[in-house]
Amino acid sequence: MVISQKNLDLISGIYEIALDPLAWRPVLDQLCLETGAVAINTVLVDHTIPEIRINATSAKFTEAVLREFNAHHLENEAPAIMALTKYRPGEFISETQIYSDIGRNREEVSTTGWLRERFNIDYRVATRLNTDPAWLDCLTFHYSAERPFIREEEKRVIDLYRQHFARVIEINRPFTLLQSRFRAVLSVLDRFQIGTFILSEQGNIVVCNREAERILSLDDGLARTRDQQLVCRDEKDRLKLAQTVEKVCKTAKAERDDKGRLLTIGRHSEEDPFLVDIAPLRGSDMVLGNRFRGALVLVSDPGNHRELSADGLRLLYGLSEAEEAICRMVIEGLRNDEIAESRNVSLDTVKTQLKSLYAKTRTSHRIDLLRLAQNVNIPVDPPDQSPETDET
């Protein structure tokens, strides 16, 4: 499908959602126009951090409508939403199919009659965005009784945007958690224990948190120039970082279709490389200003594992007790021989259990496992914990 300027404009708008949940509505309204839907809603159910919830809608479903739905119909819908876990992103599943999966007839579900009577909606189709087992997310498209189906060309339009919706939900989770716990985002970034940089389209550091400052103070791979540019000490890494930032800034400016990428940035010390996740970022009236176009850069230091936890990985990935114990030790930075000594087992046993651990979690080494642990257990301060210096 050829990408038009209209498509690029909407892709840019999607990245406004990263820091501002109010941006969902205009984005979904535009998507309604492009897909012929009467209404669209998106849902995120987090399996490990219940505070992280998204239930955003296009303008058709007002706050009053959502309250009515939550009071009278949410209980019916919850099993249907969870039934989506068996499907992959890219599949479009009708409500008839979903209800069939849980042994129900859609005509017997109260939501069906309510949508028909209130909004003349008689067809819904859902599609997943991410496959991460830590959370379930989806977009649901609502069609009128006069046109109870979705066209193939509309599916192609949705597929064009899918990766960007998936990406913005992924990067938004920590900020949704900050908003839930502290009723703010930018002013409480120090409570987020991953280095966070917001860069202008010129690559200048506009905002950074305490962990980002700590990483820069190490002078070990990443640096800040006199003109506030975020750069790498290594020339190859410097070019890689600059090119990626430039690409995502063009996406934010509606000039490119690039969701960003994860980089590893080498260090002069013997520590593991930094994990640097770079994504487009667009400002809104509420956050950064509606003219802002730039990049979000999240830097994880594998050597700073005090805030990391393996909680939840056992349940999500079906780990044995031994695999869970080894997972914790790997996250803490122990070598294989240290794990063997600590657990009083042979090195071969540790290697076998590590192989099983990596297979179950779909990772291949410690860095992957660290990133997974961060996704599942986002390192944000609990509500009753204040940073050493709270300026909020």
From TrEMBL:
GO molecular function: DNA binding
Pfam families: GerE (PF00196)
HTH luxR-type domain location: 312-377
InterPro entries from the UniProt entry: Sig_transdc_resp-reg_C-effctor, Tscrpt_reg_LuxR_C, WH-like_DNA-bd_sf
GO biological process: regulation of DNA-templated transcription
Protein name: Regulatory LuxR family protein
